[in-house]
Design a protein that fits this description.
The complex is a heterodimer of chains A (about 475) and B (about 1100). Chain A has about 475 residues and is mainly alpha-helical. Chain A contains 18 helices and twelve strands. In chain A, the strands form six sheets. Chain A has a two-stranded antiparallel sheet with strand order 1-5. The N and C termini of chain A lie far apart (about 105 Å). In chain A, about 50% of the residues are buried. Chain B is mainly beta and about 1100 residues long. The chains are: A mainly alpha (about 475), B mainly beta (about 1100).
Chain lengths: ~475, ~1100
């Protein structure tokens, strides 16, 4: 009796143990996809349009911190010896003095690294999209994403070309070194420098393709739109002296947006009179920051400041006086970082310049006057601006280039303008800086208009270095 | 209880005697004692070839009756060497029998556990090591792993790594087996990998620790065993053991941290000199003129900048006052204390014929060295084994750990923030009242805050601890159930299941009075015409919580077969197991929180707000959700065959599959195996060496695996909130996929000798092993134009080899006992394949120290110390000079880009020789254990002044600045270059990497001393308990010898940016152990 009782207990206890274990074993382990479980919630393999849109919406990389070395090299500003000395890196200091040895032992350059990172992101999107079928239901979204990625690839490649490639000459562009061009996401595939022509061909073809795919408007100005692609095409074509095309695209862009800010309606005494995403903005982008160009460290070039007319509100909207120092506050980002995106004022100036170059003096002056009218003081709601007249196309061009300089400072545009205008003897400039009693100068078309490629790129990939 | 048993036994004995005396019997008597003359009650006395047994009484005395007139007595007692005594009619005692304690004799019947099976060490071919038991038992600590330090063969505790800097242990078993993947050993607790934080285990509950070192031992753990395995077994009750109660209680007190140790410091007067120099150079011009963001300015610079307004006498006296302050003294007095740790543990164990149990409760409290930081831990565990009948064994275990941690980060903020790290900070005024210090903004801005309607914006460090509560509650629950059933003779079915849940609830409540909350509210206040008109962050506390939990289960079904057929011993085991470990965490932040009502207010986290004094930002939502799953499915088999106790063959095989992300299915499973052979030469007939009664040789080979979970086979991204400018959700690519990813594989070949001299005078073992890692995850540094700086794949291979020697000796026996344990490990590793040739500047930066990247160089150890040749200082300028292809050069850019072959290879960055010497002494009931450890054959780099950092954004000091070259001739006695401004990064890098900063790290350290006295009932019969041990323990005694002339302890080398590292202070513990 007792033994039986004991056995019973044992049996039931055994069951108690065995059953849940066996159930669990069969339940959990035999499922075929048991080992397919995602090891972390945060790991997502991008495979839907929404995923790619989210990558594209990474404004931290696509719309911020882009190429900033061009502004350091350009002539919109000066800095004191003390501030120059206390600037962060040798690259900043050497850019300021246009030193031959730009990197002086430093190896990394964020302008280069970040641009290529963005190109890889764009390529991942472009490649990933090929695995998704474009069907009528998602066609718009699909095209918008693909167009956005193409736009960013071109935008970053263009920024790189302004720093690390020689200025573009139609005649010898095929013989000059361009950039390593990456059009796929295979990171360990070695790539060498393409020639300059191929580099710009890549940029313009990506932008043309993008312009065909992108929608006319986007809910956010950080997302490239059709207009952004046109505007970018206008900017690129102007840089390489293809005025016909620059005119065409500036015009296409202005057809989509020609709204201008009335500067008289801005709060001129504000710390930052312009707001983020104001109505002139076509595509929003903020430049990277270097210590030498942080708000309190640099001063605006005095000649530039004094070139504005008394009634020109750009003088008070763009600048403020801090003691005797002139400080810049006119960024379309609405804070201390420089705006490097695309805006209507730039398009008007491109169209005006191209019209002048095509001998259309009247059309050129009309665009220029349209712009300037909004920049002037008003009296009783009427602009005090009196339309400018040009005697001839050359006169118009000179006026437009002067206004271009005054309208677009600290937009990361000046360096490219110097590079291209230096090729026209009439508009060539010699840059000089004075530092601690020593004068530094950069004559037109100097080889230092092309920056050396960062040493870590040269050591890793062995691509050809620029002669400086 | 014992008394009753004894009476019954004696009664039985009497009966026995009564019956038997009718024949011609011999009564033999005697007394059994140990070497010290202490009686050994309960010793068994047997007469050879008879069935008669007797037990010694409490005085160690016995009487036994033999039916023969001559014969042999066999006396035995567990833990003592059995002895035999012949008797005859003329020699019937009383005998004085002395049993000799078997200190290391125990090892011969030592049972080792692999986590899958327990087997006699004798029958295993693998390398199993246990820490020196008496040293392990004598140590006092609240965590288990640190008890293994310096007393475990082949286990090295690394120093200066990311783990150790963050207060965790960093272990290597037999050196390094991987380059980039996880490098820490697998920790197994009670048969299953431990999923939680190992500090949840109370070391007082631990019975044994076994280190699985070679492939034959560890290969059964498959893909997780690449770095070796540490198998921990907790205490259990034993069948047929009377109730045993033991209590262990102790207190540990340590010295305060030595704040003067760290060389990254400049005394106030020198620091101010530097600030003055920079001030004169105009370094602060931009900051001082910044009336938009009002960046913080140090007090000294503030005084200098006020020069115009103050009289120069005023400012001089103010500066002079600052020069007399040493913040370290204030930190020492106001933030540090002597840490105290209390530890109590009570356990009960016992068992009847069918049931055994173990019940334990422990409580620890730890008042850490920084005030307001403490934690306590409660551990409760119970295990039961029930054996209803011979063939079935059921076991259960419940383990609970609850811990509460209070934190205060005030000091960490003060010392960790380089912008705040002035040596002349003072926290109190003359009367001891707390005073504010500059933190984020200038005083001129902060002082006007109240008039604009802001909350008080002052930062008063001493008030902070009372305004913030930072608490975390952790609960760790582990449930275990097991069943073992003997199906037929020799064949067992074993099922084991474990469920573990760890949850941690952390809460930081920043009170409205805390600086964090006031600063946030002020930053986000709505400012209209210079006055605060509203708050985007509501007034009230900020409550930030994080709940993390881990759910893990393991299930194992195993069939075992064991049979002895004549001279053949066969053991086979096969099993199937699955495991899953799910982690999740949820975080949230509440604003405007009221503790009393629980009310809080919603904030809008999707809008960009203008910040005061400048900038713009979202309100951090503090919301986060995370989840991870690790799954593993395995089948395995182990077999061993022994012939006549002379030859043993073992083999194991295992196949693992896991949800290793994005790897093609066919690469998810990986087969791993091992094989071993052992030859007990001393069992052979031809073996004649009587002085060496035990000698065996073994050889093993096998494979282990490893993986790097951060590397994935496909490109993956994660989603992040609040993109800049738009506030949209956006994605960041976290890993660029490599579809060809595979598991890492490492093989090990081992040759071992085990031996023992007669009477255990000297015994030990020697292992020589060769390791080879293939398919190791390597990082390729790609050209930046690829868009990614690093890319991972199975690119690398490495080799390693080493020697482990462990010797135990009984130097003196008798009243005074002296035993020595010598452990010696030699291990080297070498990268044999790596696709990438690193540039010099990368090589120079890779010495295995915290935060530095791993840059493998073919032919060198994974962690290698390289340096630049040094040609002294320039006598005219104080510039450092190096050699560029043999000629002296000051072209720093070129020097930093020198060919790797032009660099000096100093040696490995991790110890190649390590070990220890432990001496244990007993005299009567006193016992003393001394542990000395040594590390040799490696190098370290000392930080020196770096002008780019000293003159950079924040002033990062190093005391070498005081010895810098200042005038021609100084180069005779200093190697610190002259100061130049602006600094030259390349010059600084060259100097930092020059050979003068590399030093030998070799050192010998006295780890600990433990002394105890035990009151034993056996000696003092009136004692109401079995044993009472009183012990004292001195830990972290310090360095006895070091090779370097530097003041640094090679295990505590601070990097230039670290100001908080100093050696662990000495501690002293006092405690008692009571056994009933």
């Amino acid at each position: 009796m007792k033994k039986q009782h004991k056995l019973k207990i044992i049996k039931s206890v055994t069951m108690l143990y065995l059953i849940p274990i066996l159930i669990l074993a069969t339940q959990l382990s035999c499922k075929k996809n048991w080992l397919e479980a995602k090891p972390s919630k945060s790991l997502i393999v991008p495979n839907s349009l929404n995923d790619y849109q989210q990558i594209l919406d990474n404004t931290n990389i696509f719309n911020n911190g882009l190429a900033a070395l061009s502004e350091i090299n350009a002539d919109n500003y000066y800095t004191t010896y003390a501030n120059w000395q206390s600037s962060g890196s040798a690259v900043e200091r050497n850019s300021y003095t246009w030193a031959k040895d730009l990197f002086a032992g430093e190896t990394v350059c964020p302008d280069w690294t970040n641009a290529y990172r963005n190109i890889l992101y764009a390529n991942i999107i472009i490649e990933g999209l090929t695995k998704i079928d474009a069907i009528p239901a998602n066609e718009k979204e699909y095209n918008s994403i693909r167009g956005g990625a193409l736009f960013h690839r071109a935008h970053n490649l263009y920024n790189l070309a302004q720093l690390f490639c020689p200025p573009y000459h139609d005649q010898n562009a095929s013989n000059q070194a361009g950039l390593p061009i990456r059009t796929n996401a295979k990171v360990n595939e070695p790539v060498i420098r393409a020639n300059l022509k191929t580099t710009y061909d890549q940029i313009t073809s990506d932008l043309s393709n993008a312009s065909a795919l992108l929608p006319e408007t986007q809910p956010y100005l950080t997302r490239p739109s059709k207009n952004a692609a046109y505007a970018m095409l206008a900017r690129v074509n102007l840089a390489i002296g293809n005025y016909k095309k620059a005119l065409k695209y500036a015009d296409l862009s202005l057809q989509l947006n020609h709204q201008l800010l009335e500067f008289s309606s801005l709060n001129q005494t504000a710390n930052f009179p312009f707001t983020l995403f104001n109505k002139e903005v076509i595509f929003h982008c903020a430049a990277g920051t270097y210590l030498i160009l942080s708000g309190v460290r640099f001063n605006v070039d005095t000649t530039l400041y004094h070139s504005y007319d008394g009634n020109d509100l750009r003088k008070t909207c763009y600048y403020k006086l801090s003691g005797t120092e002139i400080k810049f506050k006119g960024s379309y980002v609405g804070n201390n970082s420089f705006f490097s995106g695309l805006a209507v004022d730039e398009m008007l100036l491109i169209r005006a310049e191209c019209q002048a170059r095509a001998n259309n003096t009247i059309a050129a002056m009309s665009d220029l006057n349209t712009l300037l009218k909004t920049r002037w003081k008003t009296e009783n709601g009427i602009s005090t601006f009196i339309d400018k007249n040009a005697a001839n196309a050359g006169d118009a061009l000179a006026m437009i280039l002067t206004e271009r300089r005054k309208e677009l400072p600290f937009r990361e545009l000046r360096w490219t303008d110097l590079r291209r205008l230096n090729q026209m003897p009439a508009h060539a400039t010699t840059l000089t800086r004075l530092l601690n009693g020593i004068s530094y100068s950069l004559p037109p078309n100097d080889s230092r208009y092309t920056l050396p490629i960062p040493p870590n790129e040269i050591t890793s990939s062995g691509i050809e270095q620029n002669q400086r | 209880m014992k008394k009753i048993i004894l009476t019954i036994l004696l009664g039985l004995l009497c009966l026995f005697l009564k019956v038997k005396t009718q024949q011609q019997y011999t009564t033999i008597s005697g007394k059994i004692t140990d070497q010290k003359g202490i009686p050994i009650p309960g010793s068994t006395i047997k007469i050879k070839d008879e069935k008669t047994n007797a037990l010694a009484n409490t005085k160690g005395e016995f009487n036994i009756v033999s039916k023969n007139q001559t014969g042999t007595l066999q006396i035995s007692f567990l833990g003592y060497k059995s002895t035999e005594i012949a008797f005859n009619r003329g020699k019937i005692g009383p005998f004085n029998i002395i049993l000799i304690e078997q200190q290391s004799q125990l090892k011969e019947v030592e049972i080792v556990s692999t986590g899958y099976q327990t087997l006699p060490k004798e029958r295993s071919t693998g390398s199993f090591t246990q820490p020196i038991k008496e040293a392990f038992d004598a140590r006092v600590s609240t965590d288990l792993l640190s008890r293994l330090k310096g007393i475990t063969s082949g286990l090295v505790f690394n120093a200066n790594t990311g783990n150790t800097v963050n207060g965790r242990t960093d272990l290597n078993i037999r050196g390094r087996s991987t380059i980039n993947a996880n490098d820490q050993p697998l920790i197994v607790v009670d048969n299953f990998p431990y999923s939680g934080d190992i500090s949840n285990i109370n070391p007082n509950d631990v019975e044994t620790v076994t280190i699985l070192k070679d492939a034959a031992a560890s290969s059964i753990w498959g893909v997780r065993a690449g770095n070796g395995v540490i198998v921990i077994t907790t205490k259990k009750g034993r069948i047929n053991q009377s109730l045993k109660i033991s209590l262990n209680s102790n207190i540990t007190v340590s010295a305060k941290q030595n704040l003067n140790y760290n060389p990254n410091f400049l005394p106030s007067s020198t620091y101010i000199e530097v600030e003055k120099f920079l001030y004169d150079k105009g370094k602060y011009n931009a900051t001082l003129s910044d009336i938009i963001s009002y960046p913080a300015i140090s007090p000294a610079v503030e005084i200098m900048a006020n020069g115009g307004k103050l009289t120069s006498a005023d400012s001089t006296s103010q500066i002079n006052r600052l020069k007399t302050i040493d913040v370290r003294a204030a930190n020492q007095n106001l933030f540090y204390r002597e840490p105290i740790i209390w530890q109590h543990q009570l356990n009960l164990s016992g068992g009847s014929e069918q049931l055994s149990y173990y019940l334990s409760a422990g409580y620890d409290k730890n008042l850490q060295t920084v005030k307001y930081n403490d934690n306590d831990r409660l551990t409760i565990s119970t295990t039961n084994t029930y054996r209803p009948f011979k063939k079935l064994e059921l076991s259960t275990g419940i383990y609970l750990t609850k811990s509460l941690t209070n934190k205060d980060n005030t000091l960490a903020i003060l010392t960790g923030n380089q912008q705040l790290n002035y040596p002349y900070l003072s926290y109190q005024d003359k009367n001891g009242n707390p005073i504010p210090i500059t933190r984020n903004y200038r005083n001129s801005y902060v002082s006007t805050a109240p008039s604009k309607g802001f909350l008080d914006w002052n930062y008063i460090p001493l008030n902070e601890p009372n305004t913030t509560t930072n608490q975390s509650n952790a609960m760790d629950t582990r449930l275990f159930a097991g069943l073992n059933y003997q199906l037929i003779d020799g064949l067992n079915l074993d099922l084991k299941y474990q469920y573990q849940k760890t949850s941690t609830e952390s809460q930081i409540q920043y009170g409205i009075d805390s600086y964090t909350t006031r600063n946030m509210i002020n930053q986000y206040s709505i400012l209209t015409n210079g006055k605060v008109t509203g708050h985007n962050i509501p007034l009230g506390d900020v409550l930030s919580s994080q709940n993390a939990s881990l759910n893990a289960y393991n299930l194992r079904a195993q069939l075992g077969y064991q049979k002895k057929l004549g001279k053949h011993d066969i053991s086979l085991l096969s099993g199937y197991e699955i495991s899953e470990s799910k982690g999740s965490s949820i975080g949230s932040t509440l604003y405007g929180y009221n503790e009393n009502t629980g009310a809080f207010k919603d904030v809008n986290s999707n809008t960009i707000y203008a910040l005061n004094p400048s900038g713009d930002s979202f309100i951090p939502s503090g919301t986060s959700v995370n989840g991870t799953i690790e799954r593993l499915r395995s089948v395995y088999a182990i077999g061993s065959y022994a012939y006549n106790q002379k030859y043993t063959l073992t083999a194991s095989a295992r196949m693992d599959g896991s949800n290793y992300f994005g790897v093609e299915a066919n690469q998810k499973s990986v087969p791993l195996w091992s094989a071993g052979i052992k030859w007990n030469i001393s069992q052979e007939k031809f073996y004649q060496l009587s002085w060496l009664p035990r000698l065996s040789l073994s050889a093993t080979f096998g494979y282990n695996g490893n993986l790097d979970r951060s590397t994935t086979g496909v490109t993956v991204f994660n989603t992040v909130n609040n993109a800049r400018f738009t506030g949209l959700n956006y994605a960041e690519i976290t890993s660029f996929g490599n579809p060809e990813l595979r598991w890492e594989k490492s093989s090990q070949t081992k040759f071992g000798i085990e031996f023992s001299l007669i009477d255990q005078i000297l015994s030990g073992n020697i292992d020589y092993y060769l390791k080879k890692g293939t398919d190791l995850i390597g990082t390729t540094t790609l050209a930046p134009s690829s868009g990614v700086s690093t890319f991972r794949g199975n690119f690398a291979e490495m080799k390693g080899r080493g020697l482990d020697i462990s010797l135990n000796s009984n130097n003196l026996k008798g009243k005074f006992n002296w035993r020595s344990y010598l452990l010696f490990s030699h291990v080297t590793d070498k990268v044999t394949k790596y696709d990438l040739t690193a540039a010099s500047n990368q090589i120079l930066n890779a010495d295995g120290y915290n935060g530095k990247s791993i840059v493998p160089i073919v032919g060198r150890p994974v962690f290698s110390v390289f340096s630049q040749p040094w040609a002294g200082l320039d006598g005219q300028t104080g510039d450092p000079k190096g050699y560029l292809s043999g000629t002296i050069s000051k072209d720093y850019a070129a020097l930093n880009n020198a060919k790797p072959s032009d660099l000096i290879y100093n040696g490995p960055g991790r110890p190649t020789i390590s070990g220890n010497l432990t001496n244990a002494f007993d005299y009567k009931d006193f016992s003393l254990i001394l542990n000395i450890s040594y590390k040799f054959g490696y190098y370290f780099r000392v930080a020196s002044v770096n002008y780019s950092l000293l003159y950079g954004n924040s002033l990062i000091p190093n005391q070498d600045y005081q010895n810098r070259w200042q005038k021609p001739g100084d180069e005779q006695y200093t190697h610190v270059p002259s100061s130049i401004y602006p600094s030259n990064t390349a010059r600084d890098n060259f100097y930092a990497n020059s050979v003068i900063h590399v030093d030998k790290a070799d050192h010998i350290r006295l780890n600990d001393i433990s002394l105890s006295y035990t009151f034993k009932k056996a000696r003092l019969h009136q004692l109401p308990f079995e044993n009472l041990q009183i012990y004292g323990y001195l830990n972290n005694f310090g360095i006895l010898w070091k090779s370097t002339n530097s003041k640094l302890d090679p295990d505590f080398v601070p990097q230039i940016t670290t100001t908080t590292i100093s050696p662990t202070p000495r501690s002293f513990s006092l405690g008692l152990k009571l056994t009933l």
